[in-house]
Design a protein that fits this description.
Layout: H1 12-15, H2 21-37, H3 39-48, E1 56-60, H4 66-74, E2 79-84, E3 97-100, H5 103-106, E4 114-118, H6 126-135, E5 141-147, H7 151-159, H8 166-177, H9 184-188, E6 196-203, E7 207-214
Parallel strand pairs: 1-2, 1-4, 2-3, 4-5
Antiparallel strand pairs: 5-7, 6-7
Helix pairs in contact: 3-4, 7-8
Length: 215
């Protein structure tokens, strides 16, 4: 079967005001998708296996902070900080720190042990990923879940269309086309095997998972 080429098309949700009812509905879809893929559960498990546990954890593209909440509940002794263009959600616990703005600009000024992200890297071009990778070199560990770019997840996304909002029906296959095949992310992020131990796996439901720890 012909391999899918990586194609980045703007997603509708990214252009909507967070208060727009369509955005609210789409974020609800994303929570169900996260539950289906198990991305947040997997990221939390990876963080809990690290020795010593990371004292400071950054999430890039944190959205409304759902993953930040889960990380903090599971690792209550860690300081958790969310980074996103949108401002802090009013419902986010005060114990979770928040930095609004472009994380490409804010990351170099933040010290932390671990950086995590779920369904965020696929938004960026290869050039932007190389740039981001250079800003991640100071972390002790990196943990990311991204769309798996393959035919089966694309087929499954079409089957789920009747249950999704109009925005998600557009954005879900768009995300898959912009996602990654195994082996691509470590190279695009510039994770030198002499400096990083990289483990990558994929799930048939549509998740590509990467954990990198410094040697």
């Amino acid at each position: 079967m012909r391999k899918l080429n990586r194609v980045i098309i703007p997603e509708i949700l990214d252009s909507l005001n967070p208060a727009d009812p369509r955005a609210i509905r789409s974020r609800r879809d994303l929570r169900w998708i996260d539950l289906y893929l198990g991305n947040s559960r997997w990221i939390v498990r990876q963080l809990k296996t690290q020795t010593p546990p990371p004292a400071r954890i950054i999430e890039i593209g944190a959205g409304e902070g759902d993953l930040c909440r889960k990380v903090q509940i599971s690792l209550p002794s860690s300081t958790v900080t969310g980074l996103d263009l949108i401002q802090r959600s009013a419902n986010l616990p005060l114990s979770i720190q928040w930095i609004g703005g472009d994380f490409f600009h804010t990351l170099p000024n933040i010290g932390a042990d671990a950086c995590v992200g779920s369904l965020v890297l696929h938004h960026f071009s290869d050039k932007a990923l190389r740039d981001l990778g250079s800003r991640l070199q100071s972390f002790r560990s990196l943990t990311f879940c991204e769309p798996l770019r393959s035919h089966l997840p694309l087929f499954l996304s079409k089957l789920s269309c009747p249950f999704l909002s109009e925005v998600t029906r557009h954005d879900m296959p768009t995300s898959i086309h912009a996602g990654f095949s195994p082996g691509e992310l470590p190279s695009q992020l510039g994770l030198d095997s002499k400096k990083w131990i990289v483990r990558e796996s994929s799930h048939w439901r549509g998740a590509l998972r990467l954990v990198a720890s410094r040697r």
